[in-house]
């Protein structure tokens, strides 16, 4: 007797490489002890949340006895919290947006699902840039939508406009970009995004309906060496930004994120009404109360990005000394080096023999590479140096 749907059984069977590595990591740690294993598999921010988050939480505790402190609120979030999102977007991206154009959801993941549910017809397609965040395919399939990867430029991981165009069909309803990028660390320039916007403009006209430019930006705060992360909102009428406080405030488990519509988008009030509904009927109902209070912190604080910058330097040194070929990440907290020998799955197995956990690029649509996250202390990176060296002999 089958309990699971065929689709979900299939998903479990082909479960993501990140999960597989995570589970192998648990087994290795059990066998050898946690300190013996260098785990670079999961992008779970370990840098503590800013102290202000604690202050806000303590203030909120004083309101526990007031009625409705934890009650339902409008499905898009508290009006004051939506205004904070608008203020933040303005501060980060230099664009004037209204709180009415921002919807708060359960992380960027929840925001993306609410958005897909609101705009996609079954059978539609979403193009994403490979290598990509592995969950995109699951989120599209939740809405009977197909995820179609389009390759980025070899070695540099820049946007390849021709390859995006080749992946588009009359069913294309959206193109997702993620910058700073997980897993490659790429940050797209204003020129690249402008070219993409021109393509989407032309294709929207050709196919007779808007194609959304979906900009997934939870790593916007983390760009190194003064690299600029350009705003997509002023560049295209049908641009939307999805983001969260999972990384910049280290609140990944608190599930608070948002979608913000371009102030240039015609009839965006109708889309927002749809988003309010889909946020509710997907079962999120509304974003978490505590998370909305905590996101106030983002107006004046964020995690110490200097910690990530230092780790990036240490990781770059360790990988260089061990003879790896990699591009220095411009943003986010991942390295995406070439797998020696070319077989990323076999190479990650080899690293595992050295008790070093990495994720094969195959899991991100980027075979031949492997991903390392630097959500771990410098001492772990240093400790892995010998394993990296031995595996590359
Ligand atoms: N998009 C990218 C590129 C991510 O790396 C992640 C999480 O790692 C998400 C979206 C989802 O983030 P959230 O915790 O806000 O749902």
TrEMBL record:
Keywords carried by this UniProt record: Aminotransferase, Transferase
Matching InterPro entries: Aminotransferase_I/II_large, NHTrfase_class1_PyrdxlP-BS, PyrdxlP-dep_Trfase, PyrdxlP-dep_Trfase_major, PyrdxlP-dep_Trfase_small
Documented EC number(s): 2.6.1.-
Requisite cofactors: pyridoxal 5'-phosphate
GO molecular function: pyridoxal phosphate binding; transaminase activity
Residue ranges of domain Aminotransferase class I/classII large in the record: 62-386
Family under the similarity heading: Belongs to the class-I pyridoxal-phosphate-dependent aminotransferase family.
Annotated protein name in UniProt: Aminotransferase
Organism this protein belongs to: Desulfovibrio subterraneus
């Amino acid at each position: 007797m089958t309990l699971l749907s065929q689709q979900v059984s299939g998903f479990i069977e082909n479960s993501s490489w990140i999960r597989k590595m995570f589970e192998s990591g648990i087994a290795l740690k059990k066998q050898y002890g946690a300190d013996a294993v260098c785990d670079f598999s999961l992008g779970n921010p370990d840098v503590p949340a800013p102290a202000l988050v604690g202050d806000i939480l303590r203030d909120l505790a004083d309101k526990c006895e007031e009625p409705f402190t934890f009650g339902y609120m409008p499905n898009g979030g508290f009006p004051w919290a939506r205004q904070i999102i608008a203020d933040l977007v303005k501060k980060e991206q230099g664009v004037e947006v209204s709180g009415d154009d921002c919807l708060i959801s359960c992380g960027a993941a929840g925001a993306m699902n609410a958005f897909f549910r609101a705009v996609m017809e079954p059978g539609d397609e979403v193009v994403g840039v490979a290598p990509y965040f592995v969950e995109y395919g699951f989120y599209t399939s939740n809405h009977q939508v197909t995820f179609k990867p389009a390759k980025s430029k070899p070695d540099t991981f820049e946007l390849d406009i021709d390859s995006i165009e080749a992946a588009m069909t009359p069913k294309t309803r959206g193109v997702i970009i993620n910058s700073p990028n997980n897993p490659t660390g790429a940050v797209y320039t204003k020129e690249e995004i402008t070219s993409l916007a021109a393509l989407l403009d032309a294709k929207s006209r050709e196919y007779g309906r808007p194609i959304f430019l979906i900009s997934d930006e939870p790593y916007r705060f983390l760009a190194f060496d003064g690299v600029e992360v350009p705003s997509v909102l002023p560049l295209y009428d049908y641009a939307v930004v999805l983001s969260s406080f999972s990384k910049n405030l280290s609140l990944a488990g608190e599930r608070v994120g948002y979608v913000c519509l371009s102030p240039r988008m015609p009839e965006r009030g109708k889309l927002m009404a749809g988003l309010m509904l889909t946020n509710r009927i997907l079962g999120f109902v509304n974003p978490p109360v505590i998370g909305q209070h905590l996101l106030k912190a983002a107006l004046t604080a964020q995690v110490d990005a200097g910690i990530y910058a230092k780790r990036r330097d240490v990781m770059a040194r360790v990988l260089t000394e061990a003879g790896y070929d990699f591009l220095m990440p411009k943003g986010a907290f991942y390295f995406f080096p070439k797998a020696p020998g070319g077989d990323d799955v076999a190479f990650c197995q080899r690293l595992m023999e050295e008790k070093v956990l990495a994720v094969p690029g195959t899991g991100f649509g980027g075979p031949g590479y492997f991903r390392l996250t630097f959500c771990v202390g410098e001492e772990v990176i240093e400790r892995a140096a010998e394993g990296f060296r031995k595996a590359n002999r």
